[in-house]
């Protein structure tokens, strides 16, 4: 975000100066009067002119995406860079006990990703958003079969802990590329639909949300209120975009979201 503001300033565009100041690292914030000259050009808009080009260049360099986490940590925030390793927990038919297998993804110097896994993937993958449901994957598979009318047993598909939006990491894309069909057992909320939308932009119609065409039997599970009204609006927009009309109707009726853990409890008893 800081880089975006700096690009606007370099281009001579007006910015929201108060928000820009909130993004400045402490050392540069203290020297802002040396670096910039500002004037009001509209409601909440300021024209920011560069006074000290050398100091601005230092700020620009600090805002650039660091090459790795070591460099990012030296800049004061290691989280600004992607990790060089990532992992997934996977249930598959070759396991000999109740423990999932770890798949390791490692970035290589040439920009490629090395994938370390000790099993042959199936053609279908079931992504489960959260840990509680992942470790009860047989129950989730039975529910997914009820909703989608197909077999989600380990004989037919592998099961992965998606950990929310982390599954969209670039390092994990070679793993997802192994599968012809990817099914997303996510929360029925804005965040879950955003992650689903992100994956479908990458992999197209091969990515499907695990949701029944008619959610009437599960309407009582829509009890989690959105933290902000715009979250419900966003969820409705995404559900309509992907033609998930049963989900659209559920959102409109209940004005609430459904968290996947709720689906582990029997309905209608």
Written description of the protein model:
With 269 residues, this protein is of the alpha/beta class. Helix content is 37%, strand content 18%. The longest helix has 14 residues, at 190-203. It is globular, with a radius of gyration of 23 Å. The termini are far apart.
Give the helix/strand layout.
Blueprint: H1 2-10, H2 17-23, H3 26-30, H4 32-35, E1 36-42, E2 45-50, H5 53-63, H6 69-74, E3 85-91, E4 101-107, E5 113-116, E6 124-128, H7 131-134, H8 137-148, E7 157-161, H9 173-176, E8 181-185, H10 190-203, E9 207-209, H11 229-241, H12 245-254
Parallel strand pairs: 6-7, 6-8, 8-9
Antiparallel strand pairs: 1-2, 3-4, 3-7, 4-5
Which short descriptors sum up this protein?
alpha/beta, 9 strands, 7-stranded mixed β-sheet, about 270 residues, two-stranded antiparallel ribbon
Shape: globular
Strands of the widest sheet, in order across it, are 5-4-3-7-6-8-9
Q: What portion of residues is helical?
A: 25-40%
Which stretches are poorly predicted, pLDDT < 50 over at least 5 residues? 66-81
Number of strands: 9
Distance between the termini: 50 Å
Strand content: 15-25%
Whole-number mean pLDDT: 87
Biggest β-sheet strands, sense, barrel: 7 strands, mixed
Oligomer: single chain
> Number of DSSP helices?
12
Structural class designation:
alpha/beta
